[in-house]
Each structure stands twice: as structure tokens, then as C-alpha cells.
Amino acid sequence: MLDIFLIVLSMALGGGQGKEAEVAAVTPMSSVSSASAQAAPSSGAVAAETPRYQAESQVPTGRFTTATEVKPILEMTRANWIAVREYDGKDLLYLSHLMSWRCGLVAIHVSMNGGPPEEWPMEACHEDTNAPNAMTDDPTAIYKSYPLGSIETIKVEITYDDLTADTATFDRKGAMIP
Q1: What is the enclosing helix (H) or strand (E) of 170?
Q2: Are 98 and 81 in contact (CB under 8 A)?
Q3: Which residues of 122-154 are buried (b: 16+ CB within 10 A; e: fewer)?
């Protein structure tokens, strides 16, 4: 892992293909424990998946559709990124808060109980409407169902549309809602 990091870092610092290599720089993301809503920010790191995504324009629109606009909000509300609820004999994992600010994101990855990260599908932004962040598709896209008691820890990695990333780790007790 370290050798890959050093190769990408050297390319980003000019030892490679030039300007394109800057986007591919990889910086490890620090994990933030957010069980009690007191999490330190970890923004500024470049996401490991950067080659998969294209950086978007960061001209503020006043409509909260860019990383420039949503990053400060998501950094301050990190403890609200996810919620866990026991309902109808199942664990429900909600990402409704992140979905509300998805227009400034390109990806959300969720890891359960130390497992591999899974990309969470996001509804497209509705740039041509008065409410680009509105959820108009399937309302169940804000949560997923798991067997009762199976969620112990949740790690969330978000990639902003400027290709920076944040991450937070939650435990079940700190994420439970009634």
C-alpha cells in the first residue's frame, strides 16, 4: 500500500504525466469516531477513487450544488450523517442527511462492521429545478435494511465533487434513533 502511495505521490509532484497526475494523488483518509457527536474534521484528503471521478466546477451557485457550498455544512453536521433504527424486526441504516446534500458529492461509500466499502447509490441532482437537492425518485433510497442487531459499526466515506473526501466511523449506540 505504501509503495502505491509513494508512486502516486511522486506522479502528483511532477514525476509523471504532468497535470493529469495531480488529480490522481492519494492521501490516506483519517478515520473519525463519531459515536457521541464530537468528531474532528478530516477534510482535505483526496479520495482513493479519484481516477473514477471528474472534479466539477466550484463556482458557488447559492443552490448548494457544489463541494464549496456543502462541505462546511457536512463538516459541522458530521454526527448526523447516518442513523440506525430498529424497526419491524430489522436494522435500518439511514443516510437521509447525506442524501439531502448529495449535489455537492460524487460518491458515498459505507462499510459495515469493518467489511469492504460499498458504494451507496445517489439520486441525480435536479439542476433544472428550483430544488436541485429534492428527492423525487424512490423514497426508500435513503435507507437500507439489515438483519436485526447486525449493525455494530459503520464507516462512511464521502467524496465531494472537488475530489476531496471526508470519513467518519460510528458505533451502533451513538447512531441509534428511536
Answers
A1: strand 164-171
A2: yes
A3: bbebbeeeeebbeeeeeeeebbbeeeeeebebb
Chain length of the chain: 178
On whether the pTM is more than 0.90, the answer is: no
Q: CB of 133 within 8 A of CB of 125?
A: yes
Q: Which of 66, 58, 169 is nearest to 109 (CA)?
A: 169
Sign of the four-CA dihedral 37, 38, 42, 43: positive
Spell out the per-residue pLDDT of the chain, length 178, in tens: 444 433 433 334 344 333 322 222 222 333 333 333 333 344 445 555 445 777 676 777 776 788 889 999 999 999 999 999 999 999 999 999 999 999 999 999 999 999 999 999 999 989 888 889 888 877 668 999 999 999 999 999 999 999 999 999 999 999 999 9
Residue 173, class by beta-carbon neighbours within 10 Å (0-12 exposed, 13-18 middle, 19+ buried)?
exposed
Q: With contact defined as beta carbons under 8 Å apart, do 71 and 60 qualify?
A: no
SS3 content of the chain, % helix, strand, coil (to 5): 25, 25, 50
Greatest CA separation for the chain: 56
